[in-house]
Amino acid sequence: MTRAIISFDTELSAGLYQRGVDARANFDSSILGRCREGDFGIHFQMDLLDRHGLLGVYFIDPMPALVYGPEIIDAIVQPIVARGHEVQLHIHTEWLKFANFNPVGRLTGRNIGDFPLAAQKKLIALARDILVGAGAARPTAFRAGNFGANDDTLRALAALGFRFDSSFNGAYQGHGCAISLDAGNLGMREHHGICEVPVSGLMDRANRFRPAQLCAMSEEEMRDALDHSAASGAMQFSAFSHSFELLSRDRKVPNRLAIARMEALCRAIADDARVTSGGFATLPAPPVRPGRIQVAAPKPLRTLRRVVEQGLGHLAHEVRYVRDLIYVTVNSSRWGKIAGGILLAVA
Ligand SMILES: [Zn+2]
Questions:
Q1: Nearest by Cα to 109 from 124, 97, 126
Q2: Residue 335 domain boundaries
Q3: Do the beta carbons of residue 237 and residue 3 sit within 8 Å?
Q4: How far is the CA of 11 from the centre of ligand 1 (A)?
Q5: Fewest beta carbons within 10 Å, which of 133, 141, 146, 322?
Q6: CA of residue 8 to ligand 1 center, whole Å
Q7: What CATH number is given to the structural domain containing 237?
Q8: Among the listed residues 64, 32, 56, the one whose alpha carbon sits nearest the alpha carbon of residue 246
Q9: Res 331 pLDDT > 70
Q10: Both 313 and 288 in a single domain?
Q11: How many whole angstroms from 164 Cα to the centroid of ligand 1?
Q12: Tell me: the pLDDT tens digits for 1-39?
C-alpha cells in the first residue's frame, strides 16, 4: 500500500509583516485564506479532506511567535488539532530578524540551512517547544521553509528525536535545498540518522523535476505522479500545498483552478485501492535496504496541456479583474450604469 500524505505549509507571511500588515490581517489572509468571497484557507481545506475521509498534515511555522507573541500560534494549532488533522513542524527563520528575542544571538538567515549545526538545533528545539506549548502533540516530522535544509538540519533533527524530514524537493535542489541525496530517487530512506520523505513529483522536461505541489501540477500530472508511485510500490506519495494556496496570487479572490485540483487529488486518493491516506505519526520506517523509486519520465503533451490550462487560469483571473473594475466604475453614475450594462453583457 502507498501512503498518500497531503501536507500544507501553514504560515504567516513575513512579507506582509514587512509591508506593515497587522497580525490579525496577516492571520486572516495567510491562515484563514480570507478574501471577499469567503474563507479558502485551513478550514476550507479540512472540510474538503473530511468530505473524502482523508487526513491532512499541517506543517506549522511557530517563528512568528517571536514577533507577535505565542497566542497567534495557539490560534493556528488548536482548530487543526480539534478537527483531528495532524500538526508537524515547519520553520521560517526569516522572522528572526524582526524578533524581540533571538535564541541564537545575532545570527539571522533566510533558511535553516544557513545556520551552523548547534544553532539549527537550538532553533528547531525552540520552534518545537512553541508548537507543543500551543497544544500540538510532540512533532515527529519537519519541513524547512523554502525547502532550505542541509545535511546538518537532518543531524539536528536526529539529535532532537525527530523521525522524519520532508524538506527534500528536487525542484529546490541547488536553490536552497542542500540535502545531499539523489533527486532521481523518490523513495523514503535513512540519511544522517533520520528518515527522509521526499516531496513527490515527475519530470516535466528531460532535466526538470516538477514537484507534486497543488498550484504547480495539473490534475493529469498529479494523477500520473500518484499512479506512478503506487505502480512502483512506493511506500509513500507526498503532495504539498500552503495554507493560502487556494487563493489567487494577489490573495484577492479564490483560485478556482487550484480548488478543482485539490478536489481531484482528494478523489484520486480516495478512489485508488492501492493508496491509503495518512500522516507521519503512524508512518512505518522504511526497510533497511529500500528500493529505488524512479521519478516518472516526462510526457511533452501532458506538460503542454498544463501550460495551456495555467495560461487560461491566469486569463480568467484577469478577465474577472477587468469586469470588477468596470462594475465599480460604471456604478458611480447613471450613464455609467447603462454603458456598463452593455459592457458586462458583452464581457
Ligand atoms: Zn513555508
A1: 97
A2: 299-347
A3: yes
A4: 6
A5: 322
A6: 9
A7: 3.20.20.370
A8: 32
A9: no
A10: no
A11: 17
A12: 999 999 999 999 999 999 999 999 999 999 999 999 999
